[in-house]
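Annotators were shown the component list below and the corresponding predicted structure, then asked to write short factual statements about the assembly.
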Amino acid sequence: MAEQKHITAWCSIFDNKVVKNGTQLFDAKSVGINEFVVAVYKHLQVQYPKFYKMDNLSKLGWLATEVLLKDNFDKSSYAPTQVAVVLANANASLDSDLKYLESVKDGASPALFVYTLPNIVIGEICIRNGFKGENTFYITVHFDAAMIHRQVSETMDHKAAACICGWVDVLGEDYKAVLFLVETNKEGIPFSETNLKKLFESN
Amino acid sequence: MSNGEYTDAPIYVAGAGIICAIGNNVGECITSFEQGTAGMGGMTYLNSLHKELPVAEVKHNNKELVVMAGMTASTSRTALLSCIAAREALSDAGIKNIDSLRSGFISANTVGGMDKSEHFFEAFAVDRNAGRLRNVNNHECGNITEMVAEQLNLRDQVTTISTACSSSANAIFYAARLIRHGLLDVAVAGGTDALTKFTLNGFNTLMILDKEYCRPFDDTRAGLNLGEGAGYVVLVSEKVAASLPHIYCRFSGYNNSNDAYHQTASSPDGTGSYLAMQGALKKAKLQPADIDYINLHGTGTQNNDNAEGTAITRLFAPHVPRMSSTKSFTGHTLGASGGIEAVFSALAVKHGYVYPNLRFEAPMKELQLTPETSFLKNAPLRHVLSNSFGFGGNCTSLIFSKA
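Structure shown to annotators:
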């Protein structure tokens, strides 16, 4: 019998605002994505120099995870293999692919090349937090709450006790991240397709 | 035994097949080892601007491979290589009643039908109505496996694993687990990869291709040479093994570990490789001193050899077993390398072969590890460890033991 799953936190980074559990934490008006992600990073006051090497997709997903887990996630209560990550977006790593293609003209850049896969953002999140559970990245045209619900349930019914899931998408100046922390046997919003959809659209 | 029930019963290697730059079959490869003939050279079949880079090509054009594989003319080189090696492995195993057994094909690759897709895009990039769609039909990695499984009539479990350079090592141990869980009796397992512009350009971007022939574990190493090929073992259950006239060895240990350090590099202290080797030993219920030969991942890059060497020193010193990188002959065949090297390892256990590590002159300063440089026969090898470490920190070690 599958255990009760709850959304114990959610976070969105969209339209130059950072929102956690419905409360706005930070905003920076009229700056482009490059400046905005650095502003959020500085606001968080964490030391992680590798952040600056990441592409925008990884920066966005990494920041959203930092906010999502801050103050409410007890990493020590899970084994590394018990924490899964299931993400999706519409544009894969196209933002970095195009920048990489541009760089090829003057000698291809290895630093850009390593980000020409969408699931690298999951890698950055896992490296940061030491997560070693199952992880999957899906490409869907729109946020597909049913699919995310199905895939997260599948991994949590078999292996994972916690899962970070949601949407991280970047293309040029357009970006949106909405992440959910799903845990078993914890208080929160019931983990359902309807609630995922509702929270996603509320952002 | 019912389906899905795990058993610790031994798994055996009953057949082996290879095609790569040093031979079209197992026998030709062994001859190349004996003669010290490496497979790398100038580019003949791959159509790339980077002619300055040595590659280890299979010495046949696609037309010839089509005849050898008995497949249609439009088939991807990846599938042609796979079919040739997998068929050799199956026929080598000589399982007479295979149709009455549950048989699977677990095949790894990383490029899929990319060779044909590249061909398609030459025309398509110029004119959106040009290019033959049949060339992109089998772009996906899984299609390569499906096509070959059909050719070989392996039907009960057909799946593809793609985890970079550890792909086919993972395919082999996944196949063993299917047998141990009573889901299969026989599995042809390994992998295939053809050279493509896509992979050559990718590795070139990472600046890890040597313009000279690669020098694994040497202090002057400057990168890897890409190769191509396919390698498969036939794994069988204890019951099937008992009915066969010959087997190579027991497949006794396996482990996959990830150091989660960097997208394309191992952690400098080789944590992932250490955990993989240690885990495989534990699975095989062996101590480090039981390993008599290590078939290294040994790509020849600064990072891999340093990390792998560090992990080996940590696990085995002061009694470091014989070791060598057969990539000094075959080049790095990526998704095929774990399969090709599993075949070499199985043959090593059976015949006491230790393969030479070509072009080795001076050990890495910080490690003092000296690989074997001559071809040995009849060495007393009880257990052989084969390493395959991939991008993303995906590290796999396999152990083959005297039956």
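Statements collected:
1. Residues 56-69 of chain A form the longest helix (14 residues).
2. Chain A has a mean pLDDT of 95.
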